[in-house]
């Protein structure tokens, strides 16, 4: 180091007025400037951009200075910067999934802006795991892709339906009102039972109800790499039929570098989330292991609508040059206090958080564990294969306190005490579900030498084995029942087979022809006593053929036109079979014919797309108010109904700091003729009146759904986002009666994301999400029923309508901090 001359440090004597002499001031200033320059020389920054070998900027690439613990990830422009690096020689390592990692020797300080180009990896990537069930830019269907970075910005412990709220045509809701616990979504007005969901190509929908219970998968979003939402019928997939949309989820893919993550968040209603995640990175270029452990709790917005949720995700894989074998095990356990009944309309203005349940253990208690063994490999120069074995085990119950219930509902005789016969009493019951779901899925892909033909053959075989039973665990007075006695018990076995072949062929330059043929077979057997004490034994068999054809035209890579026609068929759900033996005819399968046509455009600074759709249903199953012989409401087929609309989405980068984006859907959703059955208690004996309705709106199908997102980055690493959602009015039944309607609503959320890179961690991120900043009172979900009663003080009758709503929370917040190691 350069020595400082001794006379440089000498000071002149003070002058008579006591002030430091001019020479002394000059000396101090010179010393300060010299020390500043020395420090500046000792600490430097390096920066640059990471691109693919085709020139594409790679977002989220890892850039590490080996042996220092210092690093960065590339931003939306593929750029990176590592600050405050001591002078010296270093090895820079750059890695990105699907590309060969690269090292480069660099010397610091340097003024050079590095440009790093990565070559495509010779290792087989995991993208092919979901390839067979995914749409590509050459597939003539309507879809939206959501990547991990989009999910993580909002992921503070709420379920996936809430995180997907701002995607096109989506309406999400929560029973507890705060996004934790039981949640759901509708896409184009189709509920969760009509939305096909797969995880790594493996079916997730419950085989009997066709529903997806996200509460059984707490914090699953933390283990999701990307999601594709296909609207309409989409491409052939595994599991339940796609009757409105499909969600194709891929879980975390391997990371090149070892990592650790700690994520904690808290918020309104005593909401807490704690998550720990670790990964080995790629060991010896062959092996990788990942693990996550999560715990979420919340009191909920609705009274007593608490949630206690726990989950884990484990993954390990072998990654060869031509073969990948991966094992995923993930499990969730939930205990949620029931908030299923909703808030009566009469209390909506005075007690929005009302919950009729007060028994302290009125809970839903369920655990579900998924096991997936996945193989994907290259079989030759033109062939790739994917196969998976899966097994899911679920077991749990919901517990209910029943006040003054009839013993006859439980096949019990009256209890006689002191000569008095007691036929009704307080009791507590548990209704159990113990089920197994297992099977295999596969796909085989052929890509011609010239790349013009891309063909896939695939399918799956799955079995569901479910045991439904009920127990009485307490009675006000001892009856003739033993512990673990079952007052109902029934079993169901459902086999679901499908095989499909799909191909895309480039007929001429930029013109792609698409074809997709699927055959699906269902064998469904159920036997035993249902919870209403009826024998529900029966067998149902279905054979479906689901063809799809379409064209895609790409005059250049930035423009895409597409059009398609697709057919889907769907079997009735469990309740349609168990409730149907008493009605005039058994439930029929449903048929959907779907036309999609659209245009996509990408250019510097902006992207947009627009699509038209027409979905014509035949024999759609809907609630009509009709009763079976024990008073349960059943669904019936309506002959003709349809959904038609236009969806537009886009994003525009106004400046380097400001981006706007959003989507809007306008639709018309109609039933040609609907028969409403209304209970008439004014008549003796009891009857049901039938009212004919024509050309009415389909329930829960708003004519307008829109979202707008404004992103502003005032300084580096800080992002401020305003998220807006509008949902038009929607009816709770198919009568288009304005007295049975959910009002339109507009909500706005404000999100702050800030990232920093202190020395002790790789990355540190802070997130603050303020939901519903304008404190709007709204209800996105509800239900209704009507009946006639004798008119008071006069002859005749009056119509009574009871509406129940699921209010969502007013202004509330979630805040989180994430450490990446």
Automatic annotation (TrEMBL):
Q: Is Signal one of the keywords?
A: yes
Instruction: Kindly indicate whether the keyword Signal belongs to this entry.
Output: yes
Signal peptide span: 1-42
User: One GO molecular-function annotation for this sequence?
Assistant: siderophore uptake transmembrane transporter activity
Localization of this protein: Cell outer membrane
Q: One GO term of the cellular component aspect?
A: cell outer membrane
Name all TonB-dependent receptor plug domain ranges. 137-244
Q: Name one Pfam family in it.
A: Plug
Family named by the database record: Belongs to the TonB-dependent receptor family.
Q: What is this protein called?
A: Iron complex outermembrane receptor protein
- Give the organism, scientific name: Mongoliibacter ruber
Which lineage? Answer: Bacteria, Pseudomonadati, Bacteroidota, Cytophagia, Cytophagales
